[in-house]
Amino acid sequence: MPRRVVRSDAAPADPRGNGDLDVCAVATLVAESDPHGNLIALLQRAQGEFGYLPEPVIDEIARLSGLPASRLHGIITFYAQFSTVPSGRHRVCVCHGTACHVAGASRITEALEQELGVCDGDTTADREFTLDSVACMGACSQAPVMRIDDDTFGNLSADRTRKALRDLRQELGLQPPVGAAVGEGGEKHA
Amino acid sequence: MPEQARPSSGPAPAEGVKVTVTPAAGGRRRVSVCAGTACVFAGSMKVRDAFVREVEAAGLAAAVEVRLSGCHGLCSQGPSAIVSDGDVYYPRLREKDVAGVVTGHLAGGVPVDKLLYTDPSTGERIACAHDIPFYRQQTRISLRDVGLIDPESIDEYLARGGYKAARTALTTMTPEAIVEEILASGLRGRGGAGFPTGTKWQFARRSPGEVKYIICNGDEGDPGAFMDASIMDGDPHAVLEGMLIASFAIGAHEGYIYVRAEYPLAVKRLRLAIAAAQERGFLGEDLFGTGWSFAVRIKEGAGAFVCGEETALIASIEGKRGMPRSRPPFPAVSGLWGKPTNINNVETFATVPWVIANGAAAFAAIGSERCKGTKAFSLAGKVVNGGLAEVPMGSTLRHVIFDVGGGIKDGKQFKAVQLGGPSGGCVPASLLDTPVDYESLAATGAIMGSGGMVVADESTCMVDLARYFLQFTQNESCGKCVPCRLGTKRMLEILERITAGKGQDGDIEKLDTLARGIKKTSLCGLGQTAPNPVLTTIRYFRDEYEAHIYEQRCPAGACDALIAYAIDPEACTGCTLCAKKCPTGCISGEKKQPYAIDQSLCIRCDSCRQACKFDAVKVTSGPEQIAAAVAAQAGA
After folding, report:
1. Taking all residues of chain B, what is their mean pLDDT, rounded to a whole number?
2. How many CB pairs under 8 A join A and B?
3. What is the DSSP string of B572-587?
4. Residue A21 Cα, gap to closest chain B Cα (Å)
5. Angle CA(B423)–CA(B264)–CA(B149) in degrees, nearest 5?
6. Residue closest to B10 by CA, chosen among B358, B270, B370, B352
7. pTM, whole model, 2 decimals?
8. Is A96 on the interface with B (CB under 8 A)?
9. Would you say B178 and B245 are in contact if contact means Cβ atoms under 8 Å apart?
10. Which of A94, A142, A188 to mutate to test the interface with B (most CBs of B within 10 A)?
11. What are A61-99's pLDDT values in tens digits?
12. CB–CB of B246/B254 below 8 Å?
């Protein structure tokens, strides 16, 4: 998707509210990497550092490496791993591999969309959860499966999915469940 | 994992290599808890922790080693553990079962009968892993060590004959002789296309140039395929050893392993393996005293399916957008940074050491006329024994699905098997006796592919499955060539309207025309094969397309827009369970009286049907059928 690239001499504040973004770390990253030989690895490290790739960071990499920002954006928008928007504190990721699809993965995503009030790929307003999907996690025999951060959930149903999310919310003290818990709940495994 | 399933027992440890730990040696018994992805999802980490705890509590810590292993293979029975005394297999372990295994088996010496594997067809309990039909019917070459060894221990790999083949190749064979051996074995690329590996090596060897590269393609992107992941995180040294042999045969001193972004465990295990191999002198300078040097680096993918295509993969390693280019020149002539490059798949590299160790003739003796050796498959979907299965080439699909895979789950009917992921196709029941080899599968319209095998039953809609794959390829199309970028989009739009009940007369023909055009004119393998799922489903399941288009009916009852949930008043007992589970509160009724579903509020989440113990929640499709079912509901 084409994105507008804003260029300015001074490093601008992060437009998404992350005002204290310190792009100084970019200099070290660029110095330690090989931007012309392996730009992907540099961007992976930058994303590891900042959690995502904010506009000022992209511009700073472009400035220090002498590469056109368009080249960076070309790579960032090509590979699924890169994101230019910050994600929520917790990543809810539903597998949509073939086995999960035939086992009803779309119902799991729908249940989560309702529960979180966001569409697949979006982040909740409180920045707590990002709902995501991946092509295959390789756990086909436990289909349908999902991951919340590092916790894994297998043999899901819409009902158990809702329960798992409500349990997590309660654990985090986010929004206590209304009334008695609904459903039997998926077993959670660390 | 059964030792007996191996075509040949592991050779003795490599000479001159100090082995500090040998499996099952030194009298220490072992519990191997499966750390394959599916088992981790099923909770194997908790089971491992429980074993550690219980073994400690029983005072057996000195006598029993608890460790994680690569994928045991029978993923649908996870989380599983294998106890070394007697090779006893414990499936579906829960934390609370572990104490029983420790006190009963490890301390008491008697396997815990009620926790053993039960053969679903005979009801008989089977203790030994190698007696379980799923394992007994396999021939494991590329998966020879997966699940048997600790993937993080080079000593365990060495104890099973690891790096012996590389030593033989580098110290006693010429590069030409190695290429000849691989040619004679008949080994063909396991990544999907089936190009003869020896020929590929020969091209790269003969290609002029001082600097050459080896690349291992670990960008296993097909949804539903996890063989390569299992090899990389279950037996990483096998891949390195295969690459080392290839490096010598081709004349390359540098190798890259390109690993899919979604496989962090494989990256971790490969890194450990590379470090260990360097330390022991299997990677680096002057290997085996021959003066040969070889270094391996890992490149982590960043999430793009098209990077499984070799020219796209090379572009990605070079740090660019992973877009394919037209061939020739082939990578063997001009590949990574313009140098001659040889690319093989993970499974191919893992097979190479076996071929060198056991000889081309032993490999060629397995398999069919045109396809030698074995092929690993990941069995998934509606099959009883989901997991990793390696069988000789030429075995029939029926053998793989029904004998190894144990048939269809929940007593349902087999409908089709999807092979080769988004590039492959669906093979119907009438072709179950097709032998598994590149040519026979291609004749059905499917492909061997990398080895994903997803079984569909009567509840799987074939039109929806085709739509699913088209959505996938449409999303992953790099956009470079028009037929793939726009053609798949148009096909997807047609499939979306068909599954939404808005199909039009002539849609099937339009799909067919587009599909043939895209196949003929796309630049790379992604576009050339993207229409396969649609073409095969039209070919074998045209009636399902017609039912969607002309009758607004989904025969499998899977397309949300064409189905309705209704409660059969005859079967409903009024137990209220479904109403409690319904997230929208659209199920109502009097206690002990039949309930009914309000169609205007139902979101088709399937919760009520799954909750019902009396099979009273029915899914119907087709306007008349739905009207009848709704009218029959209580209070209608």
Report:
1. 92
2. 167
3. -----HHHHH-TT--E
4. 24
5. 95
6. B358
7. 0.90
8. yes
9. yes
10. A142
11. 999 999 999 999 999 999 999 999 999 999 999 999 999
12. no
Phi, psi of B2 (to 5 degrees): -80, 130
- With a threshold of 0.85, tell me whether the complex ipTM lies above it: yes
Instruction: Residue B380: list chain A partners with CB under 8 A.
Output: 98-99, 140-141, 143
Q: Among B201, B217, B241, which residue's Cα sits nearest to residue B340? A: B201
CA B141, CA B172: separation in Å to the nearest integer? 23
The pLDDT value recorded for residue B191 is 86
Residue of chain B minimizing CA distance to A106: B605
Contact state of A39 with B583 under an 8 Å Cβ cutoff: no
| The predicted structure's pLDDT at residue A13 | 40
* Nearest-angstrom CA–CA distance, A62 and A182: 51
B328 prior amide bond cis, ω within 30: yes
Q: Smallest CA–CA separation between A152 and chain B, in Å?
A: 5
Mean pLDDT of B300-312: 93
Which residues have a Cβ under 8 Å from the Cβ of B151 and sit 6 or more positions away?
B69, B70, B233, B234, B235, B236, B269, B273
For residues A3 and A70, give the distance between their C-alpha atoms in angstroms, rounded to a whole number.
Answer: 10
**Torsion angles phi and psi, residue B595, rounded to 5:** -95, 170
Q: What b/e readout covers B612-635, taking b as 16+ CB neighbours within 10 angstroms?
A: beeebbbbbbbeebbeebbebbbe
At A53, the amino acid letter reads L
Q: What is the C-alpha to C-alpha distance for residues B183 and B171, in angstroms, rounded to an integer?
A: 20
Q: Do B418 and A98 touch (CB under 8 A)?
A: yes
Question: For residue A10, what pLDDT band results from cuts at 50, 70 and 90?
Answer: very low
Q: In whole angstroms, what is the distance from residue B559 CA to residue B626 CA? A: 14
- Residue in chain B closest to A1 (alpha carbons) equals B479
Q: What is the pLDDT of residue B24?
A: 43
Residue A108: enclosing H or E segment and its boundaries?
helix A105-116
B61-85 pLDDT per residue, tens: 999 999 989 999 999 999 999 998 8
Of B318, B386, B605, the CB nearest to A110: B605
Contact A145, A109 (CB under 8 A): no
Yes or no, beta carbons of B381 and A111 under 8 Å apart: no
Q: Which domains does chain A have, with CATH numbers?
A: 23-78 (no CATH), 90-174 (3.40.30.10)
B300, B605, B612, best to mutate vs chain A, most A CBs in 10 Å: B605
pLDDT band at B548 (very low <50, low <70, confident <90, very high): very high
Residues of A with CB below 8 A from B607's CB?
Answer: 157-159, 183
Nearest chain B Cα distance for residue A142, angstroms: 6
CA–CA gap between residue B472 and residue B448 (Å, rounded): 19
Contacts of A43 in chain B (CB under 8 A): 302
- The Cβ-side half-sphere exposure at B611, using a 13 Å CA radius, reads 24
Q: Does residue B265 have a pLDDT over 90?
A: no
Distance spanning both ends of chain B, measured CA to CA: 57
Sign of CA dihedral B541, B545, B551, B553: positive
Judge contact between A131 and A119, C-beta under 8 A. Answer: yes
Q: Which residues of A touch B263 (CB under 8 A)?
A: 138
Q: What pLDDT is stored for residue B79 in this prediction? A: 95
Nearest 5°: the CA angle B2, B4, B7 is: 120
Provide mean pLDDT across the span B285-304: 95
Structure tokens at B350: 């893992």
Q: What is the mean pLDDT of residues B379-406?
A: 95
Asked if B302's CB is within 8 angstroms of A40's CB, the reply is yes
Which residues, 6+ apart, have CB-to-CB distance to A112 below 8 Å? A92, A94, A131, A146, A161, A165
